[in-house]
Amino acid sequence: MNHSTTTRAGISPKVWLGIALCGVVLAILPFVLGMAGQSWVRTMNFALLYVMLALGLNIVVGFAGLLDLGYIAFYAVGAYVWALLASPHFGLHLPFWIVLPAGVVLAAFFGAMLGAPTLKLRGDYLAIVTLGFGEIVRIFMNNLDAPVNITNGPQGINRIDTFAIGEFAFGRSQSLLGFRITGPEKYYYLLLFLTIVIVIICARLQNSRIGRAWEAVREDEVAAKAMGINTRNIKLLAFSMGASFGGVAGAMFASMQGFVSPESFSLTESIMVLCMVVLGGMGNIPGVILGAILLSVFPELLRAVVVPLQQTLFGDVILDPDGIRMLLFGFALVLVMIFRPAGLWPSAVRRRELSTNKEGQA
After folding, report:
1. What pLDDT is attached to residue 96?
2. Rounded CA separation 107/112 (Å)
3. Residue 311: CB partners within 8 Å, gap ≥ 6?
4. CA–CA distance, 318 with 324 (Å, rounded to integer)
């Protein structure tokens, strides 16, 4: 080993330089985006929420190979736990260090509840069951307002408490050391911190015995069981771990928005998160992050471009911006699936599998 070019940990100085540059960019990003308007900082905050969701779903779909179309239900569980325990709805205003773990634990519990009856299902059958679970949770949230009003039904819950540490509230603008920091900017740093923690957990899990067991189950469950892997426990763990990250994202969503309703947790959201995982590259953490950022920021960029472009070219808005946005969005996804079927940034294993399949077919 060349000690002049590597550190004690075996990481080259170039890698540390790259990490430092990324850290600087991420640190100043909200202030740069804030020059164009706070709406772009909020867009970035939602992108970070989607990164958390995509990383959670990646454990279930990418690592363990279990197709889950109801993942957004865990997002809903986390959001409603925060809303019920930190709002005037029940008169409870519990601190974050109680509400956030409660949301995570309950989401993980629901993940195990979903996983237990679906242990013997795979492929399309598992997708149908998980889809049904996601819809059941949304319908429950929609109807649990009678005879006892728990979720306030379709009207949702408002005036939810913001994330606060003592007197430091993340939802309000504040002056620190002579600088004015807005609520979205403060939330950006909180969400960035949580995202980094989740990335580290995912990376450690992927390279652990559990991660290799998930991979074995994904490739061949019968062979994995023959090798002594407890496939039941390992699949339940995948559902619970993935759901817990969804619970974190949901709790942050409720505290950031100050309002939750069942409409925010539709099947479309589940499919959107699944698209992020597939587009970025199933099983590859950097790819999943890329997919989540692209699919959450790209539509907002299109929304900002389509109307001014039409007004410049035609003097009026001829086509509905939302229609064009979704049309281009779908067209881009089709192109990616044709020319990059393994995703924009696939893992080395996935890339090798696809190349082997092509050679076998030839």
Report:
1. 93
2. 9
3. 317
4. 11
